[in-house]
Amino acid sequence: AGLTIAELLHRLRQRQTDVESNQTLNNYLPRFLYGEFMDVYHTRLRAITPAMQQVIAQILGCPYRGTTRRSYLKQKALKLISLYLNALYQPPLPKADLDCIYDAAAILRNQMTSPPTMEQLARQVYTNRFKLYQGFHSVYGTTPVGYLHNHRIDSAYYLLSTSDWSVSQVAAAVGHSNRSRFATAFRQKIGFKPKAFQLHLQRYAS
After folding, report:
1. Is the pLDDT of residue 126 over 70?
2. Which of 65, 70, 75, 113 is a good FRET partner for 200, with 20 to 30 A between their CA atoms?
Protein backbone atom coordinates (compact mmCIF):
# COMPACT_ATOMS: atom_id res chain seq x y z
CA ALA A 1 0.00 0.00 0.00
CA GLY A 2 1.30 3.45 -0.88
CA LEU A 3 4.13 2.07 -3.00
CA THR A 4 5.57 4.30 -5.68
CA ILE A 5 6.17 3.01 -9.22
CA ALA A 6 9.90 2.86 -8.45
CA GLU A 7 9.32 0.76 -5.34
CA LEU A 8 6.97 -1.58 -7.19
CA LEU A 9 9.50 -2.04 -9.95
CA HIS A 10 12.23 -2.76 -7.44
CA ARG A 11 10.17 -5.28 -5.51
CA LEU A 12 8.33 -6.98 -8.34
CA ARG A 13 10.89 -7.05 -11.18
CA GLN A 14 14.14 -7.34 -9.26
CA ARG A 15 14.95 -10.69 -10.86
CA GLN A 16 13.48 -11.70 -14.20
CA THR A 17 13.76 -15.44 -13.41
CA ASP A 18 12.20 -15.20 -9.96
CA VAL A 19 8.80 -16.71 -10.74
CA GLU A 20 7.37 -16.23 -7.26
CA SER A 21 8.16 -12.50 -7.22
CA ASN A 22 6.91 -11.93 -10.76
CA GLN A 23 3.62 -13.68 -10.01
CA THR A 24 2.92 -10.79 -7.64
CA LEU A 25 3.10 -8.32 -10.52
CA ASN A 26 0.34 -10.19 -12.34
CA ASN A 27 -1.83 -9.99 -9.22
CA TYR A 28 -1.39 -6.21 -9.06
CA LEU A 29 -2.27 -5.45 -12.68
CA PRO A 30 -4.96 -6.56 -15.14
CA ARG A 31 -3.88 -7.36 -18.68
CA PHE A 32 -4.89 -4.01 -20.18
CA LEU A 33 -2.49 -2.21 -17.79
CA TYR A 34 0.34 -4.73 -17.94
CA GLY A 35 1.82 -3.40 -21.19
CA GLU A 36 1.78 0.16 -19.88
CA PHE A 37 3.49 -0.90 -16.66
CA MET A 38 6.19 -2.81 -18.50
CA ASP A 39 6.76 0.20 -20.73
CA VAL A 40 7.64 2.17 -17.60
CA TYR A 41 9.88 -0.69 -16.48
CA HIS A 42 11.83 -0.81 -19.73
CA THR A 43 12.15 2.98 -19.78
CA ARG A 44 14.02 2.69 -16.48
CA LEU A 45 16.49 0.27 -18.07
CA ARG A 46 18.03 2.79 -20.44
CA ALA A 47 21.54 2.09 -21.65
CA ILE A 48 24.47 2.98 -19.40
CA THR A 49 25.82 6.42 -20.23
CA PRO A 50 29.48 7.01 -21.25
CA ALA A 51 30.09 8.72 -17.89
CA MET A 52 28.82 5.60 -16.07
CA GLN A 53 31.01 3.39 -18.23
CA GLN A 54 34.03 5.47 -17.29
CA VAL A 55 33.34 5.14 -13.56
CA ILE A 56 32.72 1.39 -13.90
CA ALA A 57 36.07 1.04 -15.66
CA GLN A 58 37.74 2.95 -12.83
CA ILE A 59 36.15 0.63 -10.26
CA LEU A 60 37.20 -2.51 -12.13
CA GLY A 61 40.72 -1.16 -12.62
CA CYS A 62 41.25 0.11 -9.07
CA PRO A 63 45.05 0.19 -8.51
CA TYR A 64 44.96 0.62 -4.71
CA ARG A 65 44.99 -1.76 -1.75
CA GLY A 66 43.89 -1.76 1.86
CA THR A 67 42.11 1.25 3.32
CA THR A 68 42.97 3.41 0.31
CA ARG A 69 41.23 0.88 -1.93
CA ARG A 70 38.09 0.87 0.21
CA SER A 71 37.97 4.66 0.27
CA TYR A 72 38.52 4.87 -3.49
CA LEU A 73 35.84 2.29 -4.30
CA LYS A 74 33.34 3.94 -1.96
CA GLN A 75 33.91 7.29 -3.66
CA LYS A 76 33.48 5.79 -7.13
CA ALA A 77 30.40 3.81 -6.09
CA LEU A 78 28.74 7.00 -4.81
CA LYS A 79 29.67 8.73 -8.06
CA LEU A 80 28.10 5.90 -10.07
CA ILE A 81 24.88 6.08 -8.04
CA SER A 82 24.74 9.85 -8.55
CA LEU A 83 25.17 9.49 -12.31
CA TYR A 84 22.51 6.79 -12.45
CA LEU A 85 19.96 8.85 -10.52
CA ASN A 86 20.63 11.92 -12.68
CA ALA A 87 20.11 9.86 -15.83
CA LEU A 88 17.03 8.20 -14.37
CA TYR A 89 15.10 11.37 -13.68
CA GLN A 90 16.43 13.54 -16.48
CA PRO A 91 14.33 13.35 -19.68
CA PRO A 92 16.51 11.77 -22.38
CA LEU A 93 14.90 13.85 -25.16
CA PRO A 94 12.95 17.10 -25.63
CA LYS A 95 9.25 16.66 -24.82
CA ALA A 96 8.08 16.68 -28.46
CA ASP A 97 10.59 14.00 -29.43
CA LEU A 98 9.81 12.02 -26.29
CA ASP A 99 6.08 12.06 -27.06
CA CYS A 100 6.88 10.84 -30.56
CA ILE A 101 8.78 7.82 -29.20
CA TYR A 102 6.08 7.04 -26.65
CA ASP A 103 3.48 7.14 -29.43
CA ALA A 104 5.60 4.79 -31.56
CA ALA A 105 6.02 2.40 -28.63
CA ALA A 106 2.24 2.39 -28.06
CA ILE A 107 1.67 1.52 -31.72
CA LEU A 108 4.08 -1.41 -31.46
CA ARG A 109 2.37 -2.65 -28.30
CA ASN A 110 -1.10 -2.37 -29.81
CA GLN A 111 -0.10 -3.97 -33.11
CA MET A 112 2.42 -6.54 -31.93
CA THR A 113 0.84 -9.38 -33.93
CA SER A 114 1.04 -7.38 -37.15
CA PRO A 115 3.45 -4.48 -36.58
CA PRO A 116 4.15 -1.76 -39.15
CA THR A 117 7.49 -1.58 -40.91
CA MET A 118 9.96 0.90 -39.47
CA GLU A 119 9.28 3.27 -42.36
CA GLN A 120 5.53 3.06 -41.74
CA LEU A 121 6.02 3.53 -38.00
CA ALA A 122 8.19 6.61 -38.54
CA ARG A 123 5.57 8.16 -40.82
CA GLN A 124 2.77 7.44 -38.35
CA VAL A 125 4.53 9.45 -35.63
CA TYR A 126 5.77 12.16 -38.01
CA THR A 127 9.49 11.47 -37.83
CA ASN A 128 12.14 9.69 -39.86
CA ARG A 129 13.71 6.28 -39.41
CA PHE A 130 17.00 7.64 -38.07
CA LYS A 131 15.32 9.72 -35.34
CA LEU A 132 13.08 6.78 -34.51
CA TYR A 133 16.05 4.48 -33.89
CA GLN A 134 17.95 7.19 -32.04
CA GLY A 135 14.92 7.94 -29.85
CA PHE A 136 14.28 4.31 -28.93
CA HIS A 137 17.92 3.90 -27.93
CA SER A 138 17.73 7.01 -25.75
CA VAL A 139 14.46 6.05 -24.04
CA TYR A 140 14.54 2.24 -23.96
CA GLY A 141 18.17 1.35 -24.64
CA THR A 142 17.23 -0.76 -27.64
CA THR A 143 15.91 -0.56 -31.21
CA PRO A 144 12.20 -0.48 -32.09
CA VAL A 145 12.51 -4.14 -33.10
CA GLY A 146 14.18 -4.94 -29.78
CA TYR A 147 11.41 -3.10 -27.94
CA LEU A 148 8.78 -5.11 -29.83
CA HIS A 149 10.59 -8.34 -28.97
CA ASN A 150 10.68 -7.43 -25.27
CA HIS A 151 6.98 -6.56 -25.27
CA ARG A 152 6.05 -9.83 -26.95
CA ILE A 153 7.94 -11.85 -24.35
CA ASP A 154 6.53 -9.78 -21.48
CA SER A 155 3.02 -10.34 -22.86
CA ALA A 156 3.67 -14.05 -23.26
CA TYR A 157 4.90 -14.17 -19.67
CA TYR A 158 1.64 -12.57 -18.53
CA LEU A 159 -0.57 -14.92 -20.57
CA LEU A 160 1.28 -18.03 -19.44
CA SER A 161 0.98 -16.83 -15.84
CA THR A 162 -2.70 -15.94 -15.86
CA SER A 163 -4.44 -18.20 -18.39
CA ASP A 164 -4.72 -21.87 -19.30
CA TRP A 165 -3.78 -21.24 -22.93
CA SER A 166 -1.46 -23.62 -24.69
CA VAL A 167 2.04 -22.52 -25.67
CA SER A 168 0.95 -22.39 -29.32
CA GLN A 169 -2.01 -20.15 -28.47
CA VAL A 170 0.21 -17.79 -26.49
CA ALA A 171 2.84 -17.70 -29.24
CA ALA A 172 0.19 -16.74 -31.81
CA ALA A 173 -1.35 -14.15 -29.48
CA VAL A 174 1.94 -12.26 -29.17
CA GLY A 175 2.80 -12.43 -32.87
CA HIS A 176 5.08 -15.50 -33.09
CA SER A 177 4.11 -17.85 -35.89
CA ASN A 178 6.95 -20.29 -35.16
CA ARG A 179 6.54 -22.10 -31.82
CA SER A 180 10.17 -23.24 -31.73
CA ARG A 181 11.54 -19.74 -32.23
CA PHE A 182 9.11 -18.40 -29.67
CA ALA A 183 10.26 -21.00 -27.12
CA THR A 184 13.90 -20.07 -27.73
CA ALA A 185 13.22 -16.33 -27.40
CA PHE A 186 11.19 -16.89 -24.21
CA ARG A 187 13.92 -19.02 -22.62
CA GLN A 188 16.61 -16.48 -23.45
CA LYS A 189 14.80 -13.76 -21.54
CA ILE A 190 12.89 -15.59 -18.79
CA GLY A 191 15.20 -18.54 -18.15
CA PHE A 192 12.61 -21.24 -18.84
CA LYS A 193 11.07 -22.64 -21.97
CA PRO A 194 7.34 -21.79 -22.05
CA LYS A 195 6.10 -25.30 -21.20
CA ALA A 196 8.63 -25.67 -18.40
CA PHE A 197 7.57 -22.26 -17.14
CA GLN A 198 3.92 -23.37 -17.00
CA LEU A 199 4.86 -26.52 -15.08
CA HIS A 200 6.97 -24.44 -12.70
CA LEU A 201 3.97 -22.19 -12.03
CA GLN A 202 1.72 -25.18 -11.42
CA ARG A 203 4.16 -26.57 -8.85
CA TYR A 204 4.39 -23.15 -7.21
CA ALA A 205 0.57 -22.85 -7.03
CA SER A 206 0.05 -26.33 -5.59
Report:
1. yes
2. 113
